[in-house]
Every structure is written in C-alpha cells, then in structure tokens.
Design goal:
The protein is mainly β. It is built from 1 helix and 7 strands, in the order αβββββββ. β4 and β5 form a beta hairpin. The N and C termini lie far apart (56 Å).
C-alpha cells in the first residue's frame, strides 16, 4: 500500500510540473485574464485564433524574470511578433497581420517556480 501511495504522489508531482497550454476564451467584454505558476524549465502558453487586423492590448506581471514571446505557426515555421528575454513584466499592443492562431508564451529558465498574471484585451 505504501508503494502505491508513493507512486500516486510521484505521478501527481510530475503532472503538476508539466507545461501549460491554455485556449484563450474571450469574455463578453473582449477580455481574457489568466493566472498561473510557471514551473522551473517549463512554459505557459495562451493561444487563440485572431482575425487579420485585430488589435489586442496585452500585459503581464511575473514573480521573477521569464522569457516571453508572441508567435504563430506558418507551416513548420514559427513567426515571432514579439520576443523578450528575462523580463518580469511588460505590456504592448499586438496587431494581427493574418488570420492565425496567435500564442503568448512565457518560459521559466530558472530553477524556481514563479507566478504569472496576464491580461489580454481585444480592441
């Protein structure tokens, strides 16, 4: 029984340390807010389809510096709109050039977990 409990606890630890991919679901007011913990050497990615010409104001705050980017996939190629290294907060506005699934992505290169709070607003 002790071995089963140890295995269950280990499985829960591994599952909680996996990367997180979240579908953006806009509110009626055109907002999306998300809070997460970014595990060491893992990432959090928020993705959603945008029409061409959509403006999205975005901002985030993290408890420690993270690598950040906004990107979309064109076949096997990854196209970056924004790329920042080791930042704990930032904000700007994305203008979608094409109808695509755009992703906001934070990667934790440190050895400690950190918090992340994100706010997106369609204009």
């Amino acid at each position: 029984m002790k071995q089963i409990l140890t295995l269950a606890a280990l499985s829960m630890t591994v599952l909680s340390a996996q990367a997180e991919v979240v579908e953006i679901r806009w509110s009626g007011e055109g907002r999306f807010e998300h809070q997460a913990t970014v595990a060491p050497a893992k990432f959090v990615e928020l993705c959603g389809k945008l029409p061409a010409g959509m403006r999205v104001s975005w901002g985030f705050e993290a408890g420690a510096p993270l690598d950040f980017n906004i990107h979309y996939h064109a076949g096997k190629k990854v196209v970056f709109d924004t790329r920042l290294k080791a930042v704990a907060n930032s904000s700007d506005t994305l203008l979608s050039k094409l109808e695509q699934d755009y992703c906001w992505m934070w990667t934790n290169e440190s050895t400690l977990a950190t918090t992340l709070s994100v706010d997106l607003h369609r204009n």
